[in-house]
Amino acid sequence: MIGILSVTCNGSTACLGVDANAISFSWVIDGAEQRDVMQQRYHLQISTAPHFQDCIYDSQWVASGQSQHVAAAGFIPLPEQRYFFRVRVEDNASEVCAWSQPGWLECAPDAVTPWQAQWISPDDRDTPPESVHLLRKTFHLRGKVKRARLYASALGIYQLQINEQDVSDALFSPGWTSYQDHIQYQVYDVTALLTQARLAIGARLAEGWYKGELSWLKRRELYGDCKALFIQLQITYEDGTEQRLISDQSWQCRPAGQSHSSFYHGERWDARVEPRHWAAGADSEGWRNVEIVPSRSAWLVPQIAEPVRVTEHLTPRAIVSRNARRTVIDMGQNMVGRVRLRATLQYGERVVLRHAEVLDREGELYTANLRGADQRVEIVGNGEPLDYAAQFSFQGFRYLEIQGLNELADERVLASITGEVLHTDMQRTGHFQCSRDDINQLYQNIIWGQRGNFVDIPTDCPQRDERLGWTGDAHIFMRTAALNYNIHHFFSKWLRSLAADQKPDGSVPMVIPDILRDYISKIWGDETYTSSGWGDAAVICPWTLYQTYGDKALLAKHWPSMKAWVHYIHATGNDPWVWNSGFQFGDWLALDAKPDSYFGATPVYLVANAFYAHVTNLLSQAAQALGLIEDARRYREWFAQIKARFVRDWLNERGEMKADTQTAHILPLAFRLLDEAQSAGVAQRLHELVAACDYHLDTGFLGTPYLCPVLSEYGYHQTAVRLLCQTTFPSWLFSVHQGATTIWEHWDGIKSDGSFWSDNMNSFNHYAYGAVGEWLYRYLAGLDFAPDSVGGNRIVFRPDVGNTEVSSAEASYLSPYGEVAIRWQREGAQARITLKVPANAQASLLIPTGWHGEFMPEGRQLQLGSGEYALLLEQR
Predict the structure, then answer these.
(1) Which end of the chain is more exposed for a tag (fewer CB within 10 A), N or C?
(2) Residue 466 annotated to the active site
(3) CB-based contacts of 180: which residues, under 8 Å, 6+ apart?
(4) Strand partners, 270
(5) What phi and psi, each to the nearest 5 degrees, are found at residue 829?
(6) Is the confidence at residue 127, as pLDDT, over 90?
């Protein structure tokens, strides 16, 4: 029997605050008991009643195999109305499943419904700019509440309570966007909190990204000079009457216990200053009226991505050292988050928490790489038990220094500390494991690096005075990120800011949201403020989201931005087929760079033109997917011209690359810029270059992600395996054997003698080189997808049973169609393989050369429908 495992609206079974202009439905078919299940028809219903007595939308049976991002044509939802949806399908064996369990959605207020709330700001003229403020409003209910929805946003970041109960566990709301273009708001169902006649809404408001310090330049107030709160509470009573409570001049404010709170420098909280029961409206001293600030309501949009939350709790592993001045604790994992302290401090007693990723050779915190970031939390007691964690700051650390708690025994100190891991609360979708412990640790380092750097935006590091959305880092790691976690909404949110910050000429800033434009232009003398390999995120990221999740509407939304970037390159110089002007990062931080240089040896314009060709090719494919036939033809012709010019400029008459670096050979192979004979020669030379380095790499940011996939794809898979398994510098496993628990920014962030790379740029949690995770899934475990796969509907299994370094591997991935999985284990001359293919998808099994099985000739493909398979291969 087939069934429906889940049906979702915009990726969720329960959607609150949906954008009415961007609604689609998806479902996963349960075909576990059968094989070769393919959907033939679907039937979708939407109703305002949970039992579907009256359907306001009924698709009837639709002859289609589509089960992802299905639009309900003609469905026009009303704001704040709850709708229920369900689906059933018929498969290719004419079996009709039962109706799915229903999901529900509620749309946010639409653009034509004017907001009544005002933006209110605390009177902070007598407090430091980094201080936190409390805002509140008391009110009375008129009867029994049927439903209540609270809409909230801020110029800054906020937390809300109703009568001292948290409204949400989300952190850093409303999130970081290009504020001059759009500001997110959140919707909360607070019905269960409205149980008393007299109530109070309390808000804690900090400056956050909006007006707080950003970057090593210590720039402040980049978006505005005052923080503000926006609240609109809609209450519907059982008798049908309604009440609306809004932020206005009747609200009051006062300083909070946090006299300082910022992302880089941490937080200072004084329990003596914090008013008691303030969020219940009990305290009355020190409160002032708020001020009204100019409206930003026209820029409000519903929240796009999942919020940041605490997702895991870590207990300290050990006390590293202790003396009368401080205690150093090892959390056992380089994490991103905060420390929760549970202790009783005497009145005025102070505890200081300092954070660092690693220790120096003397066993002290290594903080020089933090540059201008303090990463310091200070807590002052009031003589009562406290339970506190920084509310508007986060730190990147493994080691914690505690100044204070000197009178407590070791075990009491450890018991008082909990590490709270936080990041955007994405769904985990991928898993990998193999027979080598060090490779498994590398994979875990990749996972932790993604978690620590996906804090509302894709950051480059979570500890120093930077934490910015560098575009190059984001797109080179994106395919690995999409296997590990569901990043559909996370990158959709970030790409909206990218499109907003894209300049009128189509160029794309190097960081998104864009806060470095003036600085980059000044130090490098380049007013364009863009580079190949960075601005290309405008094309690569939307295309990757489309390939991964099949969301054609999102691709269409970003088509103008994608097109503008390619046209910008096309118009930069005198020759439309060559990019040979302006600043270029090139193969940034490559090991073949000259001494004291960050720029690799590969010519920067070779890199630029390879990426120019690549994004033009992707643009033609995007046009084809969107049905823009003339555009597709046009950009195919452009791609042919750029490719031909690349070959003419960068290959000699013998078909050899003029630049003899690893990256110079990687990029034309990765982007399919050469013919078959040229590719064979260039691939062989790449293998020789790697072998000449004793199977080490010397690539940088733009060459490294493609190195192992290119070697495997062009016949040198064992070279890639040997490269991956290196344990000496430079290699992925060098840091693992140094004790790393995240990916380092530099291959030798800590050198073999215990000394450090340059303090200026030495993050120990920097996900870029973790892009090799894609290769672990695709080529080591053998879970891959065909080039024309959309949303994971065409799977390619390539079990690496001939691998001499690894005897077993397994990987799974929760695709939009359901779970895809592979496990293989080699035992002598035999290999056992298990596979899983979800319903409505198809797969190819590539039989490795030298291995065969029943009905599986050597070196051939076996076509598989949905189902679970157990196979036995034997070596000839």
Answers:
(1) C
(2) yes
(3) 223, 500
(4) 380
(5) -95, 10
(6) no
Pairing state between β 266-270 and 376-380: parallel
pLDDT tens figures, 755-792: 998 899 999 999 999 999 999 999 999 999 999 999 99
Scan for tokens 């300290």, then name that residue.
Answer: 316
Contacts of 455 (CB under 8 A, 6+ apart): 172, 308, 336, 394, 422, 423, 424, 462, 467
Strands across the sheet containing 861-864: 783-785, 794-797, 842-846, 861-864
857 pLDDT more than 80: no
**Which one of the listed residues 80, 207, 267, 745 is annotated catalytic?**
745
Task: Provide the greatest CA pair distance for the chain.
Answer: 86
pLDDT for residue 856: 72
Encoded tokens for 838: 């979800």
Residue 112's pLDDT band (boundaries 50, 70, 90)? Answer: low
**To the nearest 5 percent, what fractions of the chain are helix, strand and coil?**
25, 30, 45
- Active site (annotated) includes residue 745: yes
pTM exceeding 0.90: yes
For residue 606, report the phi and psi dihedrals to the nearest 5 degrees: -65, -45
Compute φ and ψ for 584, nearest 5 degrees.
-140, 135
Q: How far apart are CA 681 and CA 17, in angstroms?
A: 55
Residue 425 has pLDDT above 90, yes or no: yes
Report which of 685, 690, 718 is spatially closest to residue 704, judged by C-alpha positions. 690
| 417, β-bridge pairs | 341
Predicted local confidence at residue 526, as pLDDT: 58
Distances (CA, A) of 360 to 339, 396, 756, 760: 22, 16, 9, 16
| Annotated catalytic residue, options 466, 637, 868, 874 | 466
